[in-house]
């Protein structure tokens, strides 16, 4: 957790929690807002794996912030997180329908989409790779060349199920189908077996987490890395012209479809605030949707705007890395924002640990579904 206070002899104070890796994006929003408003905004950055638990704890025992910025799938837990709904009038008319629907659950809006994308893609080191691979077969076929140089062919956060989803998609599977949790499927079994097969091929270190993998890639210890669009700016700063960007490799000729979502601004306990603080929060929510602010964020970070008009313009103008970023976003599939998706994440994570401990793929898929259904029944009774 990191704490930062951005202030300038301010009279009002707000606290904002977030977990996005590119903290320059958040700081940019806040500093631009403070240029027009006499306010102190305290920023608290959490590890992406911990912020959900922190918000749930804050909702249960007290201590919630005024504002949170997090992935849109969190809003499925709006009731447990004590989020206040967002009036539709707060949303910009330029907001894309796709982005808008990521914030819409249970007939209400629970967040203001700030940026979109949040999807995985393939990075490579141009000092090591002249032409990026297009399939997993290519990575496996050339693995010995890298291993002989004491370089891992590829790295990613293997135990994080967000990275598993594109493999599931390549086998035509998806965790939520027609609004229902769908984990005990032949597609899940095939994806689990293939995922383990890649680990057995020694092309990746399955024990290397997100921080470890990103660090190894930057240091030239990995030829390729799977990471999110959120990491582009950090990688570019660290590697400069050595950074390459490509589409995710195909699996037996099948395209991988990473999940995409929006990063939304949500309001815990908004209705309990005094009138003057409510006015300030609304002002901030509208400010971050301004066309000028969306342009500035894209210019500085290459994070995709939620405005249809701006998105289309930048896509038409895109060249080089930007062209790949847009193309991979087009190949992504929206992540459901329902509570069932939150349940599915937990069930997949627990089930995958069993799989790593030796449970068969078939039994793992069955176990994942069982956990998910039991959790859904428990939450449905509340």
Automatic annotation (TrEMBL):
Record-given protein name? ABC transporter substrate-binding protein
Keywords of the record:
Signal, Transport
Record keyword Transport present: yes
Which Pfam family is an annotated match for this chain, by its short name? SBP_bac_8
Among Gene3D superfamilies, the record links this protein to:
Periplasmic binding protein-like II (3.40.190.10)
Phosphoprotein among keywords: no
The UniProt entry's sequence similarity note says: Belongs to the bacterial solute-binding protein 1 family.
């Amino acid at each position: 957790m990191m704490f930062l206070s951005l202030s300038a002899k301010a009279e009002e104070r707000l606290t904002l929690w977030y977990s996005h890796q590119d903290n320059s994006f958040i700081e940019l929003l806040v500093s631009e807002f403070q240029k027009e408003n006499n306010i102190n905004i305290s920023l608290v950055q959490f590890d992406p794996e911990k912020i959900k638990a922190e918000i749930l704890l804050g909702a249960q025992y007290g201590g919630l912030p005024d504002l949170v910025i997090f992935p849109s799938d969190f809003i499925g837990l709006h009731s447990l997180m004590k989020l206040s709904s967002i009036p539709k009038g707060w949303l910009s008319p330029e907001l894309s329908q796709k982005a808008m629907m990521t914030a819409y659950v249970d007939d209400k809006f629970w967040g203001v989409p700030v940026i979109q994308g949040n999807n995985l893609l393939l990075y490579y080191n141009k000092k090591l790779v002249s032409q990026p691979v297009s399939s997993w077969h290519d990575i496996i076929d050339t693995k010995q060349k890298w291993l002989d140089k004491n370089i891992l062919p590829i790295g990613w956060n293997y135990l994080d199920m967000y990275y598993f989803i594109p493999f599931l998609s390549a086998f035509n599977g998806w965790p939520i189908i027609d609004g229902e949790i769908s984990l005990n499927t032949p597609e899940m079994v095939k994806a689990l077996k293939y995922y383990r097969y890649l680990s057995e091929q020694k092309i990746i270190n399955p024990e290397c987490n997100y921080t470890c993998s990103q660090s190894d890639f930057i240091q030239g210890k990995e030829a390729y890395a799977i990471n999110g669009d959120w990491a582009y700016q950090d990688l570019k700063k660290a590697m400069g012209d050595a950074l390459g960007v490509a589409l995710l490799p195909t699996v037996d000729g099948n395209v991988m479809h990473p999940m995409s979502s929006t990063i939304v601004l949500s309001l815990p306990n908004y209705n309990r605030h005094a009138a003057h603080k409510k006015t300030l929060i609304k002002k901030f929510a509208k400010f971050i949707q301004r066309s000028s602010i969306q342009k500035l964020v894209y210019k500085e970070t290459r994070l995709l705007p939620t405005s249809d008009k701006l998105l289309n313009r930048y896509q038409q103008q895109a060249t080089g890395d930007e062209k790949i970023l847009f193309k991979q976003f087009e190949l992504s599939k929206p992540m459901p924002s329902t509570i069932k998706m939150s349940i599915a994440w937990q069930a997949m994570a627990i089930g995958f640990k069993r799989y790593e401990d030796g449970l068969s793929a078939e039994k793992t898929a069955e176990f994942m579904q069982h956990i998910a259904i039991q959790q859904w029944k428990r939450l449905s009774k509340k």
